Amino acid sequence: MNNYYDVVIVGAGPSAVFLAYEMIKLNSKKKVLIIEQGKSVENRKCPIEKTGNCVRCKPMCNITCGFSGAGAFSDGKLSLYNKEDDDIHVGGILHKYIGVEETKKLIDYTDNIYLKFGADTHLEGTEYKEEVKKICNKAKKENITLIDIPIRHLGTEKSHELYYKIQQYLLDNGIHIIFNTTVKDLIVENNIIKGVKVQNSKDYIEEKDNYNEIYSNKVILAVGRKGANWLVNMCDKHNIKTESGTVDIGIRYELPDKVMEKINKYMYEGKFIGRVGRYKDKVRTFCQNPSGFVSTEVYDHNITLVNGHSYKDKKSENTNLAILVSHNFNYPFNKPIEYGRNIAQNLNAIGAGKIVVQRLGDIYRGKRTWKEELEHNTVVPTLKNVEPGDLTFALGYRTMTNILDFIQSVDKVVEGFAAPDNLLYGPEIKFYSNKVKITDKFETSISGLYSIGDGGGMTRGLMMASCSGVQMARFLEEE
User: Fold this and answer.
1) pTM (2 decimals)?
2) If 320 and its partner were Cys, which of 6, 51, 308, 465 is the partner (CB 3.0–4.6 Å)?
3) Is the preceding peptide bond at 332 cis, omega within 30 degrees of 0?
4) Three-class SS string for 339-386?
């Protein structure tokens, strides 16, 4: 392996992948290296489908790590935009840096790349405008906003195929990628980036001291949510300027397809956002999976979180979605990731290392859910390796109150949303770093060090993370 590259990209999630792709399209002469702590996409296998249990893959979780990041195991939804909208409603704050119109053009461009590599040409949420409008108006009466935007659904199994094609395209066109390798540290001198220290991911997990140095005067941090905690540590160690960030804490909610039938048909994914109940905190639904499956993923320090996905061909009878409460901290406590991690660790302890599941009706009755009750529940859980229990022991009064108030409000829009046999799985936590302060060219307070994608707080989701990578490549080629 060479020890000097013109551009070093930390992480191989969507933002990194599309950065490298755009460098090729721009006929860049720069030598580009992507460093990924996980495996190549074809070697990423989650054993849970065969074993029925999370075996905590070593050294890195195959769901959260590897080429294309968590996107390869997600249900693969690309959130687009409505042409008549004068704002970008989902996906983070990329448009704050490059403007709404430029962001729309970037979404169109990036969407065409996905189509080129095999994305489904069908767009969800474009055929039933009048029906969706009626639901939106009904939601407004409950102080809830229903975001209406087109969705392109890749499907979990199709995401693997698509990203494999992109991976091979990058390799065939001169992009260097090293897998199973973790960036142990940044090399910074006099507030200027000089390169990175890397080691085998197994050695990194075992906290060994060995490492190699790779030099570059352009390092792009594209670490995703998986790398948010690592990024916080780097910011603290190297005095990289940040600002107060957000951690989204909540649950994965599972209910019958028939309850969500209209939303699933008209929109595929309904994005409900509201400030209801006594606290008026921001609560939102996220990552809705019609006929989908609840899943698990493992983060640093063996934290197990719940997620969800849906396939193009394999179907269940349930819809699952996240219900997330935004938590913002200031003085004197300003460690959102640490706060979320502590909640996750407590819930993991209550579930003996498994995801905790509880029936909604049991929460209202002030009791835990027992295995025997779950076996006779009308909503059959799609995640089998769970521990019936009591989420309220660890999730927090304010967080749980927000979630329950939100469920009751949505129930007035979607009848059956608050049915007692609906299931809550926890924890679901979206780790975003304290937002890294960046310039309008995405450069951090360290000269030559850039931050893109979800990890640094710029974007949320596949499409906008991918867009940030394309734009980063264009900035690099302008210099």
Assistant:
1) 0.90
2) 308
3) yes
4) HHHHHHHHHHHHCCCCEEEEEHHHHHCCCCCCHHHHHCCCCCCCCCCE
